[in-house]
């Protein structure tokens, strides 16, 4: 069973467990995602913002950091000679820097920074030294990027990171073997058909999958053999909803809002309030604002326009009448009210929906090595 964590205390427990596990061989799956990267390494899961920042000034000190969703890493030596002595921030640690790259803004970066992404995961998870990791990855265009990703990721890599518990800098060496690079969403289909969430689906039967991510709604029609019959992309995922709510907060004219009327509200802080279940923007008395009303109003508009496009696609292609199952995954399906809307339409919303693709990629790794 995969261990997931939702707060720093659980993360520290997990980091201690893995470091002292004595494991020498791990299998995994990595979903580079849009807004967030998700990975399953062994029996542990990790999710971090897909963000990178290069440490350009090597003379600065005390910049090393680590948390449950971000870290500092230094590549010491190994197969990637071009990275020798390169330092970088990943995740929330990168977003904290003024000069950072969000991977969803440049899809090529998902391939170019594939190793850095994995090393950041391994740092936050606090893997034991000397581990061999066999892993499957996903990419939006494997035909274009698979060879390049494999060249960048595979090999032996020694890197440094801050220890989550002792807070000292530790050095780790890992051997990474890439067992496969699959189209985005392929892992999710594999998990549906062959994993814990297995759907009973004959090769001639169809299922409709809806993946609500940070940037898009992705509709996939697949059969019981795992073949993709058709796909349709609808722009404006959960990130668009967060932006709509932030813009609605910008237009408020209550007393608290007038104190900060020139400040643009942050979609990421909106997201934080939703995840925490407080529907509160900001964490202090001055800027803290409840946004249940804005959430309800913006959700209705966001949902109705996109579900209509979904319906148009599945009916025009004559898929809806033929589908045996409707399944949903991705971080957006967990949003309050959205999960109820999907259930009322007959969708099966899978458990741990954000990690379905990573779980399926790990399953493909295990199949490929005969585990």
From TrEMBL:
SUPFAM superfamilies membership: Actin-like ATPase domain
Superkingdom of the organism of origin: Bacteria
Pfam families hit by this protein: ALP_N
InterPro entries, sorted: ALP_N, ATPase_NBD
Residue intervals of the Actin-like protein N-terminal domain: 30-187
Protein name: Actin-like protein N-terminal domain-containing protein
